[in-house]
Amino acid sequence: MLKLLPIFFFITTAMAAAGQKPLQPIHFTVSMAQPEKHCFQVMMHLPAMPSDSLDLFLPRWTPGYYQLLDFARQLSGFKTSDGRWTQPDSSRWRIYARKGTPITVTYTIKAEKHFVANPYLGPDHAYILPGGVFLYPGGMINSPAVIHLHSNPGWTSATGLTKDGSDYYAHDFDELYDEPILAGPLETLPTFTVRGVPHTFTGIDLGDFDKTGFNRDLQKIVEAGSALIGDIPYDHYVFLAIGDGRGGIEHANSCSLSFNGKDLQTENGRRRMLSFIAHEYFHGYNVKRIRPVELGPFDYQRADRTNLLWVSEGFTVYYEYILLNRAGITNADDFFHALENNIAAYENTTGHLYQSLTEASYETWSDGPFGGSLEKTISYYDKGPVVAALLDLAIRHQTHNASSLDDVMVRLYREYYQQKKRGFSDAEFRQTCETIAGTSLDELFSYATTTKDLDYDKYLGYAGLRLERDGKTFHIRPVAQREELQTVIRNAWLH
User: Fold this and answer.
1) Which end of the chain has the lower number of beta carbons within 10 A, N or C?
2) String of b and e for 467-491 (b: at least 16 CB within 10 Å)?
3) pLDDT of res. 21
4) How far out from the chain centre does Cα 468 lie?
5) Taking residues 260-279, what's their average pLDDT?
């Protein structure tokens, strides 16, 4: 591990300067010698036991996917170097050894499910979702971690983690659990830079499509997102295309994406894929940095509930539409059509009569990320972007288009992420919105906390628009005549 000496020297020197005792890194070695058996062989080395016993845990969930997952059921063959251990519960292993002595733990992880929130190993590639692969020691989650891969011939690897040769480094287990590793015969598109920061798209079996044009569109999306916030908070970024893994998850300087190049061979498929990628990319701001206070630091053994997923997820849906529009990938009609689909999905089920956005956010751990029964629940992916649009229009109207929802996002980023280095409370989020708007936003926040009907025409009217309903279909249409402020707001909103 001498290759990592410069990294550790920098970290330990910084900690010593701050008067802190440096934490020794915990080392993991991952082997995948028989990928056809779908099993990772893992060795964990702890440099010194902090006491005569230590509990090791496997997370019950992974950041970005708000569901309890049975990772521990996939762990078998647990052994320690001195052979003494017990298992107090399904996701906890207690090891025994003399205080101060190093100890090695080995185990196997079964990984045969293609899904973005599960680890996978097969003959074609490996997707190491850290929360489902690496144990963490109780009370030592702030320890650095080093990952060494015994990869297969012809395979390369990619991740957002710091890389040094074949090893990866995480400052602590929160960073480790946030950054998956993709390995296999990866195809990597040319790196592009935005504001001097490199961004790379890499993945498994990308397929045949216009890769030059696709890479150009990715750059436009990143440019639009970074221009909105006015900052890039990472020193490199990687898009990880994991194949047919279903879904996507955001990370601090990467995102995991189910991806099939065939989807890019039609114009509609291309726009859907770019919208999906824009969503996961913008989560790097809205969730990883702009976040409710509950979303970190995490307790990986219990559900991490918040009332504000309608902001974290719903607003990100709204901003995926915004980014594509500002990047010139879609136009005003595409933008309206996306919102019309959200309105229809929300209004055409009876769930909107029973569940509020805050309730949907809090209950996602039981209802699922897209809601449960359509008769009794809603999805914050549908109502969330609609409320975001109405809030954006309200702020523009109240400030004569001097401010917008963009200003709310920037204020949250600067005040809570950059300055206070924490998330915001429900009250702090509302206060920020009302400060930017310069007025109370009681009605708009009642749309989040109650099942009150949305007054679409009032807020769309601020941009000279109205909502028409034809059966189960909705259309956003311009009014016949618009006042000057309505015209200004509409033009600014869509550009």
Assistant:
1) C
2) beeeeeebebeeeeebeeebebbbe
3) 66
4) 34
5) 94
Q: Residue 10 CA to chain centroid, in angstroms?
A: 29
Residue by residue, DSSP assigns 460-471 as HGGGTEEEEEET
pLDDT digits (tens, 9 = 90+) for 31-62: 999 899 999 999 999 999 999 999 999 999 99
Tokens of 313: 């997820």
pTM for this prediction: 0.94
**CA dist list (Å): 244 to 125, 157, 224, 247, 251:** 12, 18, 28, 9, 19
Q: Where are the domains of the chain?
A: 2-185, 298-495
SS3 410: helix
Provide the CB-side half-sphere exposure for 378 (13 A, CA). 35
| Closest to 253 measured CA to CA, from 222, 217, 224 | 222
Mean pLDDT of 305-321: 98
| Domain 2-185: which CATH number of 1.10.287.70, 3.40.50.1980, 2.60.40.3650, 3.30.1330.120 | 2.60.40.3650
Structure token pair of residue 332: 């005003």
Residues 6+ apart with CB under 8 A from 478: 464, 465, 466, 490
